[in-house]
User: Which sequence fits this backbone?
């Protein structure tokens, strides 16, 4: 399968959000990565439903929504209404993860589960067949522009093994500190989707940077 690129709009210029969304539309990116932070599950607050709906209004590609929030269950329908196509919750935020995954799918979205850097991949073995996406965090969630945690490469391999072992169709996505160098290692390890925020939006030619990532 071709590598998918999901630029993180957390690093875009919020005063020019339409411009940046259109840049992604016309680039070789596949999805929009949309980071929602609540100041409780992670020590930062990003944005909520109105901003997601504004992105959706202009986006011509799927919204890959990454929830870094406590109690995501109570907002699943709202995220669908705001325009989420893929909804990813954190393993660490969901005591009834199986139920949460079913609720996401029942709402008409693809379901993903994200793992913090300290959370073992094997903990997903009883739900792996239900999942469309496994999101390996390669930084501690909360901020763009952090340093890549090398152990994520090993976790990508472990996630691919788990997926094969259980006959799951889930894709493996990696988020945090992705650039051409770390991206190449991750793809070698089996990553299907790369998220990149500061590497794309901090470059002088974001569209060319997306194309570079796409051609890894
Ligand atoms: C971090 C977010 C990431 C962030 C990645 O908590 O989940 O999606 O935007 O940013 P970079 O690519 O700059 O590490
Ligand atoms: Zn993210």
Assistant:
């Amino acid at each position: 399968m071709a590598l998918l690129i999901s630029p993180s709009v957390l690093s875009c210029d919020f005063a020019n959000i339409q411009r940046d969304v259109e840049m992604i539309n016309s680039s070789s990116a596949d999805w929009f990565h949309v980071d929602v932070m609540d100041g409780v599950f992670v020590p930062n607050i990003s944005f909520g439903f109105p901003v997601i709906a504004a992105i959706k209004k202009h986006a011509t590609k799927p919204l890959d929504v990454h929830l870094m929030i406590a109690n995501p269950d109570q907002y699943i329908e709202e995220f669908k209404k705001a325009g989420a196509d893929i909804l990813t919750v954190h393993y660490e935020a969901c005591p009834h993860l199986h139920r949460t995954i079913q609720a996401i799918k029942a709402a008409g979205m693809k379901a993903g589960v994200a793992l913090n850097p300290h959370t073992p991949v094997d903990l997903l073995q009883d739900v792996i067949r239900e999942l469309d996406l496994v999101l390996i965090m390669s930084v501690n969630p909360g901020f763009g522009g952090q340093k890549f945690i090398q152990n994520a490469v090993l976790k990508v391999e472990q996630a691919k093994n788990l997926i094969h072992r259980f006959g799951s169709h889930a894709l493996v996505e990696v988020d945090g500190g992705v650039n051409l160098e770390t991206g190449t290692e991750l793809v070698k390890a089996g990553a299907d989707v790369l998220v990149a925020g500061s590497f794309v939006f901090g470059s002088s030619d974001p569209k060319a940077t997306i194309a570079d990532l796409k051609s890894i």
